[in-house]
Design brief:
The protein is α+β, with helices and mostly antiparallel strands. The chain has two domains: 50 residues, Orthogonal Bundle (Arc Repressor Mutant, subunit A); 79 residues, Alpha-Beta Plaits. Helices cover 40% and strands 19% of the residues. It is built from six helices and four strands; from the N terminus they run H-H-H-E-H-E-E-H-E-H. 13% of the residues are buried.
Length: 159
């Protein structure tokens, strides 16, 4: 893996791609006053270094009817069941994120549902997985911060 130091142009490229991963390289090049080829080469270097690992699409789940968000802490009977339980959780499409954690929970999940009744069904589905001792749920009232740039800017400012 090639090592290189990120400069201001790299930071600006990342900034624009975080805002919209589908931004054409030609548009980025125009804004930065460089050639599209330069953008292509720099993004390729960022990918080769493992800094950029793909691109993603943001979905507005509220518009699709999935505005209810809850976080579910999962307690296991035995930590050795973690892999088995995660495989089962992975088969539940409404579980959009799952972390193996230390502390109170063995696994911590984010779920998206249509409403409280739908969320209850998803939580019961998690509860019914063999090896799950119990769950504890927290309802999200509002996603107040979801900023993909703050940490990146903080990292760049420290270098």
């Amino acid at each position: 893996m090639a090592k290189f130091k990120l400069d201001n142009v790299d930071h600006q490229i990342l900034d624009m791609l975080i805002d919209n991963s589908r931004t054409p390289f030609t548009d980025i090049a125009k804004k930065l006053n460089v050639s599209a080829g330069t953008i292509h080469v720099r993004v390729k270097k960022l990918e080769d270094a493992g800094i950029v690992t793909g691109s993603s699409l943001s979905i507005d789940y509220k518009k699709l009817g999935y505005s209810f968000i809850a976080y579910v802490g999962v307690f296991l009977q035995k930590t050795s069941q973690t892999k088995f339980v995660l495989e089962r959780i992975n088969s539940i499409p409404n579980v959009t994120v799952a972390h193996i954690t230390t502390g109170k929970f063995n696994i911590f999940c984010k779920i998206r549902a249509k409403n409280t009744t739908h969320a209850k069904d998803i939580i019961y589905e998690i509860d019914d997985i063999e090896g799950v001792l119990r769950t504890e749920t927290m309802i999200s009232l509002e996603e107040s911060i979801n900023d993909k740039k703050r940490l990146m800017h903080s990292i760049f400012d420290k270098k």
